[in-house]
Amino acid sequence: MNTVTEIMSELESLGSPGVKAIWLKHGIKEPFFGVKIGDLKPIEKRIKKDYQLAKDLYATGNADAMYLAGLIADDKQMSKTDLQTWVGQAVSCNISDFIVPWVAAGGNCGFELALEWIKSPEGHIASAGWATLSNLVALKPDNELDINKLKSLLKQVQQSIHTSANGVRSTMNNFVIALGIYVSELRDEAIAAAKNIGKVTVIKEGTACKVPDAIEYINKALNRGPVKKKKTVKC
Fold this sequence. Notes:
Layout: H1 4-14, H2 17-25, H3 37-47, H4 51-58, H5 63-72, H6 80-89, H7 93-106, H8 110-117, H9 123-139, H10 147-160, H11 166-182, H12 187-197, H13 214-223
């Protein structure tokens, strides 16, 4: 039951009008069935990793199938061309802000692509770039990170966050938070940057979602005890 046709039928049967209405308010775009993330997990567990199936599901353009594709993608097999294709098609925010960044960060060229994506005039691509950077600093040991480049990017965020596109402001803010939590060498600078940036306003029409206060979020994470890098960012 692992062909694209079979999985699409399965996803359709799991779809819910109520869930779909919520997802629409959160920036997920048609077509999709409205499948709960929890209902994708048994399918992910059954398939595990499948490079080609992931690409074929993503190519359907259905946001539920695209999300599942990211969960089962073999990140290390994903080429730059694959990821460029994926980010270009990631018009739903759950795909641009989560799926593509998760897969890119778990692969071999995430940092290189992220630096390219954040320069894009396309909001969903720039957002994917900042989210990829956030995931990379959460995954990689500090000695494998380009600290000087990250420091430069932190300055860039301070200069441009308030004039960036709506969704990009959110992922930029998350980048500051990720640096403050996961990169000990840049923790103080991230907190100072957050103070300098101040309140980040993101319009989230039709939802109760709020942009996290970076300093509060960083301190809350640090107060829980020693910070460990993540083994995976997918969830």
